[in-house]
Fold these 4 entries.
Entry 1:
Amino acid sequence: ASGPAAGGHDVAQDRREDDLSPSLTLQWHPTDEMMLYASIRKGFKGGGFDHQLVAEQSAAEQNFQFNKEQVVAYELGSKWVFGGGSSQMNFAIFRNEFDNIQVSSVQDNITFSVGNAASAITQRIEFDGRWRPSKNLNFSWSMAYLDARYNDFANAPCSDEQVRTSSPDCRLLTPTTGIQDLSDKRLQYAPEWAVFTSAEYIMQLSDRLALISTFEAYYSDKVALALDLDPYTFQKEYAKINARFTLTNDRRDWEISAVLRNLTDEITSNFSNDLSGVFSEGSYFRLVESPRAFSVQGLIRF
């Protein structure tokens, strides 16, 4: 591998990984309509090689690889069908314990650098269900509470502002880089609350034609978009509404749909980061998601 910003490095490394991922699930049906379950699983995400822009050959060799991520996942839950099958409610509690969790950060405004945080724990409570009061009307919903924190992340990158202002929370490594301790802080992309609901109504226009109207609403709590948890890179809480109107026949072998997304024209981002350097000091960039949009779609099934 070579580092173009540093004039080039020669790095030759190899890696091999073996992992056993056992799982155990227990289910109990106290009635025909209810199922209770518990599970424990072990999983992993393979490590790899990461090409970073560094000046020293020794740093290129040391940072060329990132380790595999491992997780032990626990889950308790229930599934309940009632109303003659017209309704269903599900409830679940999750706990995931991560070691060497893989994280990605922007390096020198140019590339993404992949590395490992020490450990993290995520805990989630989730409730979802559906209700079909008639054959033409269907409701569904879900609500989740998430507590996701780094258990140990003492080498997290500092934000550009922390480096420029010599923040006491940031330990400088070079004049332009530093590390901070984000242990017990929330993970990136981990909203505390998330809610989704939808409604679908089927209107029979004739014996062979039907109009299917679908409405969706989604709410997300504020969320960190940058690994360094810079407060200027957070996405504030928001709600979005989508709608879809589909004309189809009784066999559903063709469809024509009008799709409306983000009806309230919420401006949201899915990534943000600061820009370091003399000419971009104090600046930030964001990847903005689609604003209100309308499209027409067609589908033919053979």
Entry 2:
Amino acid sequence: MDDQRLSLYAELINKLLKCPSGEQNTILNAHPELLDEGLVAAMQHYSETLRQQGTTDAAGFLENLGQQISEFIRQGDSPQEPPSAERQQAYVDLIQLLLACQVGEEQRILEAHSELLDQGLLRMCEQVAMGLVEQHNQQAAAWLRSFAAQLANGVPAAKASHSIEQEAFLMQLLQTVADSNGDPASVLSLLSANLSLLNTDLAALLSNWFPGAIEQADEGQRQALAAVLDNLGSLLQEYQLGSSRSNLLIAIEAYTNALRVYTEAELSQAWAITNVNLGIAYSKLAPFSENPKQQIENAIEAYTNALRVRTEAELPQAWAATNFNLGNAYLELAPFSENPKQQIEKGIEAYTNALRVRTEAELPQAWA
């Protein structure tokens, strides 16, 4: 990709970040020649940079907009003109219902307003989310963006089946991980060439495929498949392009399925390592989830499982590292807990355990 095109992408992204809420479609329609996967990749790169700088709201905006553009590209379409004022108000009313409803009522509300489930609703979700951020209501904005990302897999414009293409990609991805023994260069190159297929549908496809695959395999093949999934999960956790949320959900699905093979009774060390990786993935997912508390609790459960194998007596360094992760998770849980003091105390206990091994004399950097 030449420098001139990268410069055009950067200019367009800056316009989108600076424009008033609701003008994004007008700007995109004025630059149809730039609406391609290169723009999506540039948006993801910008979003990761913004997130590292602590500008999470702008990062979330770019990630969501990039997903919508990628969906338009897959359909051979381009962003459409805004719907009528009446329909836009209907979108806003529906979104307000969703924000105000009790947990679990979302599906009933969506079914009662099925005529509004289209790409226009998704765009309005982003506009409302930006307004919530301006009102300093980041929690509601994060929930709405996450909900819209899930909804995107079910609205009419996204119903075209890509299952055959996605299944072929999954098989190619797993084969590449296996052949390269998890070499990042080979795998990440393949991921970057297929960003539009790297979404939550892939996580569901993996979950549906793996049980049948291990049923037909002998024990050696089962363990090899589990190792491939473990490597895939670790690569996806660190992957910088695409949707961070989707990457983490696929990684979690990979680890969870690997644990169908790695059991505590028969493959205890692999089971413990995969549980630690799973815990890290859940912790990373929490900021992208409408229910961060649940993800952090999942992480704590995974770390606690690993500590059944990673004992102080037999694996002191691994035990200390896992306790450190556990301490972090308890501190992350505290703001969401009815008893934050208790979570902080548990975090302190885990850190104190880690310091029994990470001593100033032997491991000064880790101790510090």
Entry 3:
Amino acid sequence: MKRTLTTLCVVATALIVSGCSALGGTLIGAAAGAGVGSAVTSGSTAGAVGGAAVGGVIGHEIGE
């Protein structure tokens, strides 16, 4: 059940991010990082927060 929920969250995040062309690299990176961080840590909140932070930094640096 946990794996199914995590998969659904990752898919929903990917769909939301792909539909928002006005979002900057930082926001897209943060959303993608949160999804990946949560999936890698089996749905952990800390993994989602850490992934969002790392994804936001990477998205910001790529955008510059």
Entry 4:
Amino acid sequence: MRPQSFSARRSVTQTLVTAETVMEEGGPDRLDQALGLAIRLRRHARGLSQSALGEAIGVSFQQIQKYERGTNRVSFSTMVRICEALDCHVADLVAEVEQLDTGDKHEGQDLLTQPEAAPLLEALAQIRSPGVRRAVLELARSLARES
């Protein structure tokens, strides 16, 4: 086998280092999936489409889809831009990831496939008062603890 030239090795290394796709055995990393779900839930709560979020941070809607599925990793700079567009702090998003990630597939990761999810998120997105939104969130958390 012929040795690779320096430029060929550099090209391969750059490709490996800059590739954002995360494919481990069986698919995306669970933390990347949890972050994607947290982003998706926040986006829905704000009433933004994938296109609108993508435009706000300078990427395509397809890239937002990949972030939300966890198939592409979100860099820190991109996470900051996403949080700015979603009007939240990075710490809030990280806290949501910690809640969603239990090490195994969490029931919440299937939330958006449930028939009640879309109407609930649409209704929440229509609430303009931050105080009322917080009250709805606290009510939901209280009901979740009791069930």
